[in-house]
Records
---
Amino acid sequence: MARYEGEDPASFYELRNEAGDLILISSQTLQDRFGTQFLRTLSPGEIDTTAKDGLDHAFYFLSEPIQAPDRQQFMLTVGTRASETDALLRDVEWRLLAETGLVAIPICLAVFGASLLIIRFGFAPVRRLSQEAQRIGPANPEARILEANLPEELRDLAAAANAAAARLQQAIATQRRFTADTAHQLLTPLALLSTRIQESAILHPDPGLRTDIMRMQNLVRQLLNLSRLAAAPQPRDEVDLRAVAKDVVATMAPLAIAEGRSLSYEATDSPSLITGNSAAIGEALVNLVRNGLRHTAPGTSVDIVVEQSASISVSDKGQGVEETHRGRLMEPFFTTEAEKGGSGLGLAIVDEVMRQHGGRVEFENRPEGGARFRMNFKAA
């Protein structure tokens, strides 16, 4: 027991009850020096610590639960003095952590920030390449990636993307030219056929033949207009949207009255100016008004409003746009009103005109019923 009970014991033990109270300790000297809380309440397993009065009193501890014959639970802790080398090493480790932590944390943050900057600026050319590649498509086939501003490693990729864009542009141009030529070639025979039927003294047994021919003429004419719009940009001038809308309302009013409907027109007091082609804008607005007349209920009106924010809205009082049709509404030849003469090209023409003017066409269902289409332009 000398090693446990000496003046400066190398080993010791203590016993605590289930409540954590100290029952027995081998060295009164250690208890007097460090107090009863020197070991504290330890969980089972090996731990180590350093005494409060220096490296000479560093110990290893081991705590294990034991059960007395009367089934009372105790915690037995035994310990032994650590060597001076071990104690010194542990002291150095904790000093490094404690004293250099304040310096290491800013260094780590600085390294982390520098890494983010390197990644951000290092991948900037890739990000720029991706953004420029996204501009290439059927709506903008002439767009190209600027190879001169890219690193050498990315120029081959940009050149391949530009070559693919050139092939895409050529294919689109060929398709548009074919569509325009076909529409032009069909328009003349249809006009001659319609004229011959009108001049014929013999009544045709099918009274709907003339209506069908007129519908075919309208379809071919719209197809030709769409091809011309997509083929080349239109000349631009300063355009007052109020004047364009007023001319369209005056032109379409007789048709609306003949179909048992009406048109209303409202505009701002001051000009709503944009830079664009008035003929193309007027044609797009005609298609929206015709679409509104086709869907609005008999006895109601289609409302045309020119707003100060360089936009024209066309509202009807029909059934609105079904949710299942919203994604395809601007597709060429998509129509839900074929029996009413719809060709599916009117909204496609509107979309093409707005694309060429750097704007967009939006649509929504009105709370009071019907749909509202809005042509949003860039103000001059």
Note: The radius of gyration is 43 Å.
---
Amino acid sequence: MTRYHIKITGQSKEAMADLIRKYKINIFNHGISYSKETGYSIDAMAVLDDIQLLEKNGYIVVILENLDESGKASQKEVGKGNRYTQQPQPQQKQRSLSSPFTPISPSASEISSVALDNAISYLNVEEVEAALSVATSAPYTAITKLISLPESTWEGRQCNAIKIANGNDFERPGVYFLGGVHAREWGSSDILVYFVEQIEKAYLENTDLTLGAKNFSASDIQTIVNTLDIIVFPQANPDGRNYSMTSTDAMWRKNRRIRSPNSSSGDCVGVDINRNYDFVWDFPTCFNPSAPVHTSTDPCDHEVYHGSSAFSEPETRNTKWIFDKFKNIGFFIDIHSHGKDILYSWGDDDDQTTNPNMNFQNPSYNGQRGIIDSSGLPGASAYKEYIPSSDLDVAIELGNTMRDSIKAVRGTSYTVKSADDLYPTSGASDDYAYSRHFKDVINNKIFAYTIEWGTKFQPLYPEMKKIIQEITAALISFCLWICNNPQRISFIGEN
């Protein structure tokens, strides 16, 4: 059946929560908009039967686009071949050094300029991996290292990450950027490749970096690379991303795990990687039965099946391996789309700073989580997730820093908020990252975020390039804040 991108409007937050709890609608954003005239609205995906049922029950539904048709159009904007292995044309050698991705010498880095300087299409799966190879080749070898991750995907692909750092001091703060988790969110991988290439080029050339109207000085870039360990894993789910880019289902979200010989196609394939981490993964036990949890135990759920166990998937185990390997990581961002949101922990319930005993590890609260206080229901505040007030202050301040940097590029407004704004989640990467030090005091405290970029999963590439600049600016400002606030991160490794 044809799927549509729709906007759903209801008169109350309770009605909006019912979209997940009662109607099992696939919601796109973490947050909802509100208007006195129309009520609460949110973007979602649905087939005509869903739309008719919602309209019958009092919702206003506006069809925004035919996702199957737009998906086919988007696939035409995926790169063909591998631009990172093609030799540059003579005229491409004459570009100004001030333009993005232009090489500093006719070397391996020159190939990267062919791929992304003046790019008109999304990087395909092979190009993302090739970009990491180029980024860790001469002339960048003194500040970069290719990290081969231990787990192959279900389709046998090798995943790689990259470390950027001038120095090897274990006491340096570690920053971890993850992308490409949800298959249809193509631009997340492009953002992180762009970030890597801009940072390393500006560092070696000792030049300023300008992104739209936002400028970072040469000194800023030097400080980042000389102070931090930056680990970038741009393509966590290459199987799913490749399927989204090449199959009839551009809106595919999960990985490509096949659970039985009879399920090589259709809905009964795949796990939602961002529901597979070990944070209240067993949501039927942990959450209130009426909580609108956007997660599923159904292996045939097309969107949010959480897997057979926490970390059942090689993709999530690769993500975890990086946390375990680089124990100085204290900051983490998982890059997704869409909604123009910057989300901080927690995502399972509202935050509270006064009762440390009320936390995700306490089984006496099982069956109470996930009823968001803003719903106004009786007993809605029975459970809230504990976060130390100092952590909450830092989380909001860092989120605002990224928000302001995004706006400086071309005026786009993002919203900073806790990740549970409309619906609670379980098994998400950001909550898992932040929860690690609560579970084991040996682990560093990790301030964790999800950025939801843009308003479409696969915007036309001219618009995607602008979004890439915005989110790159946010990531650089994020790094700079860490460098410039050593006194604020002295508590890393403490509870």
Note: Confidence is low (pLDDT under 50) at residues 90-109, 491-495.
